[in-house]
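stage 2 :: seqdesign
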């Protein structure tokens, strides 16, 4: 294993970026990073002031400058969260000892940068990764988000923290702006990138926002938000899009007012506030500055930030850890949920037997959460935008024990392949896995460079066309295929768009 070395610039007047020979200083001071091989990591860089005290539920404020050299050799605290981890029941596989090494707290608006640039001004493409976790958990230091893999392939990789739960999504009539502080954090991080990423060899005019699950939702919101205009040129979203269930700012503010007076809520300790707001719906809202309308409406009206989009979902995004339903229970729930469309639903999701019902529950969860919103996003972008869309379907099952492989190509199972971080996930990898990681990460890097994932030695990935809805199957075989499970996706068109 390559030894890690903390590089400190000791000579007066020499900028303190370890791997870069002539970087400019960032706007708040000088940094020293940690180098392993060709890649230097800069961890725990403040991109905004700590959102504590009177800054709780305010838009991000400028980070304070420092004197001398700041050691950027460890991750910051994660943003306050009552639930550890970003991946659910399999999180112990992904959350290693160095994840959330600083614990969690409200002083959390930090980011991390990985670069292999030899000097500033190299104009490498930049990827800004937005973590998952349902907007209630997670952080930018999860091991499978490690940026060294993609940095070694030519990008500057950035991971960020953003406020979570009631700290990131609280609306109240006395707050201005109100509601979407987590999204404002993401925008503040992108503005930091515009000001500073050239010092790490990145190109501020070639930024890709990327994320998985809640991070994919974040990408979707940023693509729709007028406040993010010009801050990124490409978008990658893995398993997630906000096409239903929009929450109005007016309703969120009414719910927030019921929790109490703003001054009292601001003064509450984090743990007490989190408990008091346990039933408050902490989610992005529309009708405010960040999202003037619902995401679907903004795309339907062609008001989105029109950039190339790479998006898709996993075959087993809908894995359920609840006991499988009986056929009778599944059919009864269909009648309750879909009323006059229940028969159509049951034609798409069969439930003649308990085994069929269990499989259909799994498929319904996937299609409702990821498949249908992802396809609608692709359709709307190609209908009202000019930039191309590239759609994927990941159905590769990572190797492991039976207790692990039974979850199939589960939600988040693609991340280590896309980010080339198999080494950060303890599974018995095969040559086929390593080949898929090389190919997927190359697609992702190519897309960040040019807005087109195709490149030498890779199977051709055709752009999405509504007239011929095909997706790229990502597995041991990579090939364009018709979108799977079309009958279920078509049902949700009728149900959600009627």
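stage 2 :: out
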């Amino acid at each position: 294993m390559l030894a890690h070395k903390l590089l400190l610039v000791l000579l007066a007047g020499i900028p303190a970026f370890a791997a870069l020979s002539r970087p400019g200083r960032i706007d708040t001071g000088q940094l020293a990073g940690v180098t392993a091989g060709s890649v230097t990591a800069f961890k725990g860089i403040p991109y905004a002031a700590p959102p504590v005290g009177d800054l709780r539920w305010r838009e991000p404020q400028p980070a304070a400058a420092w004197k001398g050299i700041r050691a950027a050799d460890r991750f910051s605290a994660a943003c306050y969260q009552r639930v550890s981890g970003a991946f659910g029941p399999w999180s112990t596989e992904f959350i290693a000892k160095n994840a959330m090494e600083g614990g969690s707290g409200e002083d959390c608006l930090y980011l991390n940068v990985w670069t292999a640039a030899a000097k500033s001004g190299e104009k490498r493409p930049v990827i800004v990764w937005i973590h998952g976790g349902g907007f209630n958990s997670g952080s930018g230091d999860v091991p499978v988000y490690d940026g060294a893999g993609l940095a070694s392939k030519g990008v500057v990789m950035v991971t960020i923290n953003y406020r979570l739960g009631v700290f990131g999504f609280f609306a109240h009539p006395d707050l201005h702006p109100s509601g979407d502080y987590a999204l404002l954090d993401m925008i503040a991080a992108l503005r930091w990138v515009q000001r500073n990423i050239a010092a790490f060899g990145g190109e501020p005019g070639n930024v890709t926002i990327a994320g998985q699950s809640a991070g994919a939702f974040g990408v979707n919101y940023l693509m729709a938000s007028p406040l993010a205009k010009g801050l990124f040129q490409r978008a990658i979203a893995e398993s997630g899009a906000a096409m239903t269930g929009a929450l109005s700012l007016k309703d969120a503010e009414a719910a927030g007012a019921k929790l109490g007076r703003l001054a009292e809520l601001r003064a509450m300790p984090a743990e007490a506030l989190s408990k008091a707001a346990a039933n408050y719906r902490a989610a992005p809202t529309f009708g405010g500055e960040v999202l003037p309308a619902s995401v679907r409406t903004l795309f339907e009206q062609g008001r989105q930030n029109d950039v190339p989009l790479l998006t898709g979902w996993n075959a087993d995004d809908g894995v359920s850890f609840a006991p499988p339903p009986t056929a009778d229970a599944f059919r009864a729930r269909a009648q309750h949920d879909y009323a006059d469309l229940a028969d159509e639903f049951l034609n798409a999701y069969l439930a003649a037997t308990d085994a069929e019902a269990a499989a259909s529950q799994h498929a319904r969860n996937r299609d409702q959460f990821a498949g249908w919103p992802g396809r609608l996003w692709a359709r709307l972008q190609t209908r009202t935008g000019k930039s191309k869309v590239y759609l994927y379907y990941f159905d590769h099952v990572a190797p492991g024990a039976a207790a692990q492989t039974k979850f199939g190509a589960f939600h988040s199972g693609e991340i280590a392949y896309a980010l080339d971080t198999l080494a950060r996930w303890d599974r018995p990898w095969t040559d086929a896995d390593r080949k898929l990681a090389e190919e997927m990460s190359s697609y992702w890097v190519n897309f960040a460079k040019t807005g087109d994932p195709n490149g030498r030695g890779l199977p051709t990935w055709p752009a999405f066309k509504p007239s011929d809805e095909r997706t790229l199957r990502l597995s041991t075989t990579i090939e364009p295929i018709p979108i799977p499970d079309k009958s279920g996706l078509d049902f949700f068109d009728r149900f959600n768009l009627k």
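stage 3 :: structure notes
- The domain at 39-62+70-307 is CATH 3.40.50.1820 (Rossmann fold).
- The chain has 16 helices and 20 strands.
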